[in-house]
Amino acid sequence: MNPMRYLIYSITITICATIAGVADPTSEPDPFADHPTDEPAHVKGEFFTAAGLTVKPLVGWNPQLVTRENWPDVTAPTTFNRSFEAPTAVWRIDGGFLASFNAGEFGGALFFSPHGAKRWSKIVDAHVSHLERFEGDSYLAVGGLAHLQTTEGKAFLITRSNTGKWNTKIAFETQVGVPLILGTTFTDAFLEAKAEKLIVIGLDSHWGWNPLFGISQQGAVHYLGERLKDKESEQDGTGQPATRSQSKSEGGDKPQPEAEGRSR
């Protein structure tokens, strides 16, 4: 089976699945263990998709990424996984913090802790490397694992009710790439009655064909085709898209965690 056909058949979209349980010690190694969530996007500048949409890259972190010296004083959740001694990343949200713990091949999870609390509560039992807010208490969390010729990952819809209860479900799942959040776009080009925000994800994959998907706040998944060219490239006449390696080499553009007192 050729790689493109394998990719198409390997991607599954699940309408609703509740995430629960403890970390799985048989998980494959975490591709982000050696280079945790350093940046919110792997692209620089706007770009087009084959579906005719313009994708705008993320600007900063939403929710706010907390600097290490300002992490909350919360007991490490080693009862879930003895390797969860320190978080990979911590985000500030209304009423508390979200924290990602990645233990490589021994698992990963996303936790929540209210302000003033001393314990973490697990809300996603999977590796989470990127987090982006739709609006209010609705988020998209993505991450995955890579090992040798195997790459896989998921995208989760995470919402918090008025009573403070967290609900999660899988919106997207694949076995041929690690999902990455690239930016945002809107559904107006699909002639929908009302424009809807989509968080755009790509796949970090060795298959050589990198499809894009847009996920809505309700969990609808839109296939956006492949990435075309950057708007900036089109304007300067080169017509050449910036590659991922070129984007990463722009060291000065790497966003940093926001200061503790800064409001969004």
Structural key phrases:
5-stranded antiparallel beta sheet; mainly beta; disordered N terminus; disordered C terminus; 264 residues; 7% helix; 15 strands; 38% strand; 6-stranded antiparallel β-barrel
Shape descriptor? globular
Low-confidence stretches: 1-41, 232-256, 258-264
The oligomeric state of the chains shown is: single chain
Count the domains.
1
How many individual β-strands? 15
**Spatial extent as radius of gyration:** 18 Å
Specify the biggest β-sheet. 6 strands, antiparallel, barrel
Strand content: 35-45%
* Overall pLDDT level: 75
Query: Please, how many helices?
Result: 3
Structural class: mainly beta
Helical content class: under 10%
Tell me the strand order in the biggest sheet.
1-2-12-13-14-15
Report the order of strands and helices.
Answer: HEEEEEEEEEEEEEEEHH
Kindly report how far apart the N and C termini lie: 48 Å
What does this entry look like structurally?
With 264 residues, this protein is mainly beta. The chain has one domain. Helices cover 7% and strands 38% of the residues. It has three helices and 15 strands. The protein has helices spanning 3-10, 231-235, 244-249; strands at 47-49, 54-57, 64-65, 89-93, 96-102, 108-114, 121-124, 130-135, 138-147, 150-160, 166-174, 178-186, 197-204, 211-216, 221-230. The strands form three sheets. Strands 1-2-12-13-14-15 form a six-stranded antiparallel β-barrel. Strand 14 (211-216) and strand 15 (221-230) form a beta hairpin. The longest helix is centred in the N-terminal third of the chain and has 8 residues, at 3-10. The N and C termini lie far apart (48 Å).
